[in-house]
Design a protein that fits this description.
The complex is a heterodimer of chains A (435) and B (166). Chain A is of the alpha/beta class and 435 residues long. Chain A is built from 18 helices and 11 strands. The chains are: A alpha/beta (435), B alpha+beta (166). At the A-B interface, α8, β3, β7, β11 and α15 of A face α2, α4 and α5 of B. The structure holds flavin mononucleotide (FMN), iron/sulfur cluster (SF4) and FE2/S2 (inorganic) cluster. Flavin mononucleotide is lined by residues 59-63, 65, 86, 88-91, 175, 177-179, 212-214, 217, 406-408 of chain A.
């Protein structure tokens, strides 16, 4: 039996100080804002080029892009520059950023201050999912506390560096988590993605150079500065360095957020008594969805359960992503077509409507999966789904190609491809039984 | 209804945060919705004036977002998740029970929503954006009833302070 455990770095305070982890007093009593002081004594450019790059930090929002590299794309001499924090967390079954915001908001603000100093930004925006009312209150209270104590605002800790932070609530639209849609939304428009290039680093918020980073990515920064980038890089595996929070949900005994060192296996994460604690009623894993709703699926086979939490390995070997860190686990009582239908319904609802293949295709996928999963399927329906999917993501490969502006459309095809790959016989039998 | 004097002062503070006024549309719409209980035509007209765009542009933006209600809703908006984790752990049953129980109750609006980032304690719902997790159908109704009786204090319909304000 596995005895794998958490490695708590960014979740340490919120686990240890359940009574006051979100207050300034609780934060500073546990080392908070020391890393900011240390960062302000460094050369700004060295933070990205040396510490963050050496740490091998990759974005925790979904795409896993190297953070230091992203910062280096900012064109020289073009100011103002903006930092925009992605706190829109809407990827189904992902619930880590909400926890970080509600329970350790100062850690995020410290990361924001360090990143802003590093990239030369004096105004940062936090785009917070509109439904996170408590998170907004906690973050706003923390911002005011930090301003009053001189950790934000003008001349931070006597360094001469100024930073104004604005917390901006979204209003219920998953697509606003996509970085260019987020920028449109923050500018007061409908949250629709933009064609890239130009990338946000060149022309982002108000057409100015902009870095968009995820809440967990920025919450990790103070620890990289405190530990030193090279030390941080000793954690993890290959190009997946450090720890990540995995949101484990579904038919497990102990659903929840677990911060673990990358490189651990899915089996350890799902079965360790210290982590998700195994399957409810001892039933077998039928399939699980790593990385959020946008990823393709894996099954309860040894090959899949024993795969390491390594972003590149799972992508290259199985065509799935670690994505947003969600791991949804389903036992043998689950109808995979029903799960696929509900995901399709989500994507159809959340499509912003800008591109025809996504707007129309997600609707058709939802309708066909509805009839399959509700006893009205036809034997040829799975092939029809693949045909619709091919119009959105030609070739149905992973990583996917796209006929659309953003990856939402292709994401809606992932579940269809997984049904075909792992449950074709079951789905067709289901349709035959009703035909 | 237009902004109260107190909320107009809050609106000015919000406007001052942004390099471009149009960015204030979402926060101002939240403020108006907390004040009025839904996003009224008058509020959209006033927001348009405050940020310097046409009322149609405010409608164009706000109509994209599910949190903004352009028709009157109950004092309590109950958002029940039925996305995949809640789906397999009883979310649809919670939704069905609440829909039946509060059918015709003008104080309560029940809506089905997407994943609320509470899947660790599924099934989950929000009442005016306050989280309630690990629900059963009856337990969920008890919570709604507690709000109805005033034993639990509801946020505004947009999740801020009821009546608006900072
Ligand atoms: C449809 C869609 C939804 C997304 N939702 C989120 C989200 O809720 N939070 C997030 O941080 N990134 C989300 N992303 C990824 C962002 O576009 C972006 O890659 C990320 O915020 C960059 O930050 P990082 O490099 O720190 O990960 C989404 C992407 C897509 C295509
Ligand atoms: S792929 Fe879908 S969500 Fe993305 S821009 Fe096109 S229509 Fe909008
Ligand atoms: S699936 Fe219901 S809260 Fe996430």
């Amino acid at each position: 039996m596995s005895n794998a455990t958490e490695t708590r770095i960014i979740t340490k305070r919120l686990r240890d100080r359940t009574e006051d982890s979100w207050t300034l007093a609780g934060f500073t009593a546990s080392g908070g804002y020391d890393a900011l002081r240390r960062a302000l004594a460094m050369e700004p450019a060295a933070i990205g080029a040396e510490q963050v790059a050496a740490a091998g930090l990759r974005g925790r929002g979904g795409a896993g892009f190297p953070t230091g590299t992203k910062w280096s794309f900012l064109p020289e001499g073009n100011y103002p520059r903006y930092l925009v924090v992605n706190g829109d967390e809407g990827e189904p079954s992902t619930f880590k950023d909400r926890m970080l915001v509600e329970r350790d908001p100062h850690q995020l603000l410290e990361g924001i201050a360090i990143a802003s100093y590093a990239i030369g930004c004096n105004k940062a925006f936090i785009y917070l999912r509109g439904e996170f009312a408590l998170g907004f209150e906690r973050l706003e209270a923390a911002r005011l506390e930090a301003m009053a104590a001189g950790f934000l605002g003008e001349n931070i800790l006597g360094s001469g560096f100024d930073l104004d932070v604005v917390i901006h609530r979204g209003a219920g639209a998953y697509i606003c988590g996509e970085e260019t849609a987020l920028l449109s939304s923050l500018e007061g428009d409908r949250g629709q993605p933009r064609i890239r290039p130009p990338f946000p680093a060149v022309a982002g918020l108000y057409a100015k150079p902009t870095v968009v980073n995820n809440v967990e990515t920025l919450s990790t920064l103070p620890h990289i500065v405190a530990m030193g980038g090279e030390e941080y890089a000793k954690l993890g595996v290959n190009r997946s360095t450090g720890t990540r929070i995995f949101s484990v949900s579904g038919h497990v005994n102990r659903p929840g957020n677990y911060e673990v060192e990358l490189g651990m296996t899915f089996r350890d994460l799902i079965f360790s008594p210290e982590l998700a604690g195994g399957m409810r009623d001892g039933r077998p894993v039928k399939f699980f969805i790593p990385g959020g709703a946008s990823s393709q699926w894996l099954t309860g086979s040894d090959e899949h359960l024993d795969a390491p939490l390594d972003m590149d390995y799972v992508q290259q070997t199985f065509g799935v992503m670690l994505g947003s860190g969600a791991v949804m686990v389903y036992d043998d009582t689950t109808n995979p077509a029903l799960v696929a239908w509900r995901l399709a319904k989500f994507f159809a609802h959340e499509s912003c409507g800008k591109c025809t293949p996504c707007r129309e295709g997600t609707g058709w996928i939802e309708k066909i999966l509805y009839r399959i999963s509700h006893g009205e399927g036809r034997p040829q329906d799975l092939d029809l789904l693949l045909d619709v999917g091919d119009n959105i993501s030609p070739g149905l490969n992973a990583p996917f190609s796209q006929t659309t502006i953003c990856p939402l459309g292709p994401s809606a095809v992932s579940a269809v491809v997984s049904l075909q790959q792992y449950f074709r016989d079951e789905v067709i039998a289901m349709c035959r039984a009703t035909a | 209804m237009a902004f109260t004097n107190e909320n107009l002062a809050v609106a000015q503070e919000i406007l001052a945060r942004y390099p471009k006024a149009k960015s204030a549309i979402l926060p101002l719409a939240h403020l108006a919705q907390d004040q009025d209980g839904y996003l009224t035509q008058d509020a959209m007209r006033e927001i348009a004036e405050l940020v310097g765009v046409t009322p149609a542009e405010v409608l164009g933006t706000t109509s994209f977002y599910t949190m903004f209600k352009r028709d009157p809703v109950g004092r309590l908006v109950v958002s029940v998740c039925t996305n995949v984790t809640c789906l397999v752990l009883g979310g649809p049953e919670v939704l069905e029970h609440l829909e039946r129980r509060y059918a015709g109750d003008t104080e309560v609006t029940i809506e089905e929503v997407e994943c609320l980032a509470a899947c660790g304690n599924a099934p989950a719902m929000q009442v005016n954006y306050e989280f309630h997790e690990s629900l059963t159908p009856e337990g969920a109704a008890d919570i709604v009833d507690a709000y109805k009786r005033g034993e639990l204090t509801a946020r505004g319909v947009s999740g801020g302070t009821a009546g608006g304000g900072a």
